Amino acid sequence: MPVISVPQSFNEDELFVDLRSIVDQPLFLKCEGFNFAGSIKLKAAAEMVEAACRAGVLTRDSVLVESSSGNLGVALSMIAASKGFRFLCVTDSRCNLSTRLLMEALGSEVHVVTEPDPVGGFLGARLAYVRALCASDDRYVWLNQYTNPGNWRAHYRTTAPAIARQFPQLDVLFVGAGTTGTLMGCARWFRDWHRPVRIVAVDSFGSAIFGGPPGRRMIPGLGMTVRPPLLDDSYVDEVVRVDEADAIRACHRLARRGFLFGGSTGTVVSGALDWLTRRGASGLTAVAIAPDLGERYLDTVYQTNWIEAIYGKDVLDSEFDVPVQAVHQSAF
Ligand SMILES: Cc1ncc(COP(=O)(O)O)c(C=O)c1O
């Protein structure tokens, strides 16, 4: 049993869920939500903060500031509280209420941008706010997850080797794309270590990461309105795009078997199943990365009114209304 004295010291990096009995495809999920920040963004946050401390950029007088859709903000809130820094998170109105409350409970200040920039959308408006803050006072330190190499290096050091240890014969890895820190860190590691693993990026419709115009996206985490500066396409073998309604269906399908995951996990699972069904998965070893858990999404992804208001009435079809015994019959 680990004994820790700072919250960032604990992160469960060895937990995988075998989804074969739930989704009828040979898919394993690497769970990244079991730490005190509740998401994969703890890794990037810790790596970026440590690098800034080592470089002498972050001092006792500094005020950390970062643009985040939520999870990085929670992770930085936790680390800032533990290290005694102030932290200001700039987010937007799509950030879950529970995520915002978490950051405040950890002692951070949260600024919610409510008006998207006419060209750059919510992300553009958030970045403009961060830049204005940094120009106004040199105590503000912006780690900038969108360009900071610590973001992908964290996954190069930890996530990819943990997957390779558990699945030495891995054939295909599905990774959701936001800043692309997770994607680039894992893809670089498998390439550098000459592992013949197919890297499949999973993105949401409405995201402009891999091209195309930005559109409406309501699930925070995955997707961006612009091409992420960290992205190097030459490491990505394929891209799968997922409708948010399908991501929500995947979340509910897993929840009905007791696994409550977040919206981006639903997106990655839906994209992976689509790919495995199209390609024929027999004999393949496939892993998808699950960035967080579902509790932060109880008032969105798991709330019928929210789902119906945004995606219409038929998103959760009758599959989810079947009595539990009928769905699980084969398991008993
Ligand atoms: C829940 C969730 N999933 C996925 C991602 C995307 O990860 P990355 O920024 O490494 O591409 C994020 C990033 O904030 C996230 O919060």
Write the layout of secondary structure elements.
Layout: E1 16-18, H1 20-23, E2 27-31, H2 41-54, E3 63-67, H3 71-83, E4 86-92, H4 97-105, E5 109-113, H5 121-136, E6 140-142, H6 149-166, E7 172-176, H7 181-192, E8 198-204, E9 238-242, H8 244-255, H9 263-279, E10 286-290, H10 304-311, H11 324-328
Parallel strand pairs: 2-10, 3-4, 3-6, 4-5, 7-8, 7-10, 8-9
Antiparallel strand pairs: 1-2
Helix pairs in contact: 2-3, 2-6, 3-4, 6-7, 8-9
The structure holds pyridoxal-5'-phosphate.
Pyridoxal-5'-phosphate (PLP) is lined by residues 39, 41, 69, 71-72, 176-183, 221-222, 262, 264, 291-292.
Produce a short descriptive summary.
This protein is α/β, with parallel strands linked by helices and 332 residues long. 39% of the residues lie in helices and 15% in strands.
Description:
This protein has 11 helices and 10 strands. By secondary structure, it is an alpha/beta fold. Strand 4, helix 4 (97-105) and strand 5 (109-113) form a beta-alpha-beta unit. The chain is globular. The two termini are 33 Å apart. Bound molecules: pyridoxal-5'-phosphate. Residues 39, 41, 69, 71-72, 176-183, 221-222, 262, 264, 291-292 line the site of pyridoxal-5'-phosphate.
